[in-house]
């Protein structure tokens, strides 16, 4: 990326609004050592809705031995409030997970394709190529069932086992994924390795190659998550993931830390005049609340510092 391209990331006009998908109930809780009761998970979803969240990744349909925090996925979805203006998503890794998700009436499924073989085999027990075939199968089934199919490319900005990931490789993965007609294509910085210039370049190349609707999922492992979110918004991404309280991480990534926090991201976006439809104070209270339930201080800073300026 040359200097002019880097400058374009900083000076590009921001969108007037951006959608934030609340992933705390799924990606937030899946890496926490405390196993919360179903009722608490449902209350987290209810609080997210009260704070303005309208797309929520609520559960994952994975083997409970591997991710015990998600063992009650069906029970959570049975108790979650159903509203016409709220859509729920569930993470699925294979056909069995998809069948489970379909039985709960979810609006969309999120299928992960991992950009490196070693992480894919540790995370899902398949190679990247096998993961692509799984995505194609589930996308076909989701289209037939009237369910939105989202594809996420995990470790798109770096892998804990194989190191840097070639942008050419990620662009080619995106091209192949796009052939199956995803509702949305998400780029995940699973271990928080990316930087803003990398984000802007990859988004530009994938948009040019696929024309797909793009979404980004950032972790703040190396304190670049919010800068990357800014870069993604400046590059024209319409949707960002965030987790209330900044909780979570990937249970299969060594030393993984939390997602970018929904309340801190909302403070950033609101300060730049980008609307999200979220209530900052309600988010902040919810971040503190979930930290109390988990018995820890959450990574989010708004709950400690408070909004500025204060009302």
From TrEMBL:
It comes from the Bacteria. Residues 18-287 form the Pyruvate carboxyltransferase domain. Pfam families: HMGL-like. Keywords: Lyase, Metal-binding. GO terms for biological process: ketone body biosynthetic process; L-leucine catabolic process. GO terms for molecular function: hydroxymethylglutaryl-CoA lyase activity; metal ion binding. InterPro entries: Aldolase_TIM, HMGL, PYR_CT. Belongs to the HMG-CoA lyase family. This is Hydroxymethylglutaryl-CoA lyase. It comes from Saccharopolyspora aridisoli.
